[in-house]
Amino acid sequence: MRPFILVNCAMSADGKISTKERRQVKISGKNDFLRVDRIKAESDAIMVGIGTVLADNPSLTVKSDELKQKRRARGADENPVRIVVDSAARIPPNAEILHKGRGKRIIAVSSRAPEAKVRELEFVADIIRTGDMQVDLAALMERLHAKGIRSVMVEGGGTLIGSLFAQDLVDEFCTFVGNMVIGGADAPTPADGAGFVAEDAFSRLSLVSAEPLDEGVLLRWKVARSP
Ligand SMILES: NC(=O)c1ccc[n+]([C@@H]2O[C@H](COP(=O)([O-])OP(=O)(O)OC[C@H]3O[C@@H](n4cnc5c(N)ncnc54)[C@H](OP(=O)(O)O)[C@@H]3O)[C@@H](O)[C@H]2O)c1
To answer: Whole domain around residue 132: which residue ranges?
Structure first.
């Protein structure tokens, strides 16, 4: 058993999620920002790859006081469990995600994470160890389910999302498409990594909705699975 997995990201009109130097770009507008904050507040957990932590240093906290209050009223922490997928435990000890805002943190590591760094991280986060060279994402999702986590919102980046699609671990895929062209063959896209070659390996999607939002479009897809 695994949680429901929603991938959410913002990309430019030409399908890039940041610049080729991996510099964060403000792609979303105000309404998309509020929508993402709402989904975050409704999720049990929010997940990013270590590449995103190193590039953007996000805190991944819920921003609206009203939404935080609603979470507390239903007996939850004011922020969802924040999860970093980080095979070698490279996360800087002063990363925002480890210190800003209340709530639990999980660092998912593999067997190659140095023991000393893991022990240091245990003061601020729970550690889940799976996989040899890289975190075993399917096993991680099972462990999260066993901890009572039923919904995970994945915020990026492209490498982590690419692996989740490759392992058929995505249920819903939401992209806000913003009104800019970032360009560059090397700029990250929503699903990077090795990519698929055979057509039968592509993740097939069915469109749930396409609606104008801010100065762009919000696309919601469900992953289509054979019955
Ligand atoms: N526009 C948006 O919505 C948005 C959102 C988030 C991020 N971003 C952008 O995305 C970029 C970062 O993306 P990224 O692709 O470099 O990094 P990422 O996807 O955040 O993290 C990738 C890293 O996760 C680790 N990992 C561990 N197990 C894995 C597995 N099984 N599969 C895949 N990855 C695994 C790997 O590092 P180890 O091997 O060391 O563990 C891998 O290099 C930044 O430029 C950021 O600004 C944009």
So the answer is: 4-223
